[in-house]
Amino acid sequence: xxxxxxxxxxxxxxxxxxxxxxxxxxxxxxxxxxxxxxxxxxxxxxxxxxxxxxxxxxxxxxxxxxxxxxxxxxxxxxxxxxxxxxxxxxxxxxxxxxxxxxxxxxxxxxxxxxxxxxxxxxxxxxxxxxxxxxxxxxxxxxxxxxxxxxxxxxxxxxxxxxxxxxxxxxxxxxxxxxxxxxxxxxxxxxxxxxxxxxxxxxxxxxxxxxxxxxxxxxxxxxxxxxxxxxxxxxxxxxxxxxxxxxxxxxxxxxxxxxxxxxxxxxxxxxxxxxxxxxxxxxxxxxxxxxxxxxxxxxxxxxxxxxxxxxxxxxxxxxxxxxxxxxxxxxxxxxxxxxxxxxxxxxxxxxxxxxxxxxxxxxxxxxxxxxxxxxxxxxxxxxxxxxxxxxxxxxxxxxxxxxxxxxxxxxxxxxxxxxxxxxxx
Length: 424
Hints:
Blueprint (H helix, E strand, L loop, with lengths): L6 H5 L50 H13 L7 E2 L4 H11 L1 E4 L5 H18 L20 E3 L25 H8 L5 E4 L2 E4 L20 H10 L15 H10 L3 E6 L12 E2 L18 H4 L11 E5 L4 E2 L9 E9 L14 H5 L3 H6 L21 H11 L6 E5 L9 E5 L2
Parallel strand pairs: 1-2
Antiparallel strand pairs: 2-8, 3-5, 4-10, 5-10, 6-8, 6-10, 7-9, 11-12
Helix pairs in contact: 3-5, 6-7
């Protein structure tokens, strides 16, 4: 057990409510580590840093106190619209307008409790490794301090091996909304993970998208947009349409949707996600932290409550914000792809025996990620903050028959500068 974190602290860790986890003054602001845990010099471009962050990671530091009070007065997207699960068409309209929508009560009380316990169990595994230089926690490769992702700390890159996690795939509250958003029930699941921030994550994470829309599959997008009410024939030739119609088709034919499920209420101080309305239609990358206007930094989903879901267009600009509280903010996710997507990053991360227990619809949309009978998904169930360790574990589980590599990604197209891409 690491010297700076007691066994009791790990054993009693909860994913919601008051916690003693976090707030490590020995972890400098804006520090990044590589796939082996080595600190990356500030002169090296390794993800975006927050130039306005407090200089000490301490709850009662004057700069932290001032930022907390400023957020108390100003944080939160004004007039945030929150839908109920029964408002299917309204939720879809807001999604297509803003690039995201908050829907309350997606999780039942029972499933919320189960997910909180599962998230806490996996976080215990992530935090069990000793930090460097007297730090309480080992940082995740390529991610700002005190921030982790369940998916990218899993050697399989997904959480589709967990029976509770996959319960969120096909919910009576979310499936009708997803069907309305995609314009069909023939979408697909490509994985699930979700990020979290510990108390003391004092930096703003840079705005980013979840990947880059390759702007292809024109015929498929025409059909998808037509099903969503765009005035165009399903058989229309995209190239012959006027530019305004082409633009509407690309805007409405979203390639991917992520649902982040809230494990706690989002407050002004516990690191609420920020979403930039309308940014899913932008062809330019989001601004770097030095150029991000203040209204974007404050465009957070304060007032969204535990059990709700943030249903996001993967093209929309978003990012995490400072967690200045004494509560962990976790948002496990399920990630969906349009049925016409390329599927080039789909991996067999779901055990066949678990796939067999799903509903008929869930089995159908998870068909591309199920492993073969009797084969455990490579790396599934092994959690570690360092990308190099995850890469080696994946290759080990495949007995050297499969590949895995770490890559550097454009920080504005991902929330993490170093990623592991598994083979298959």
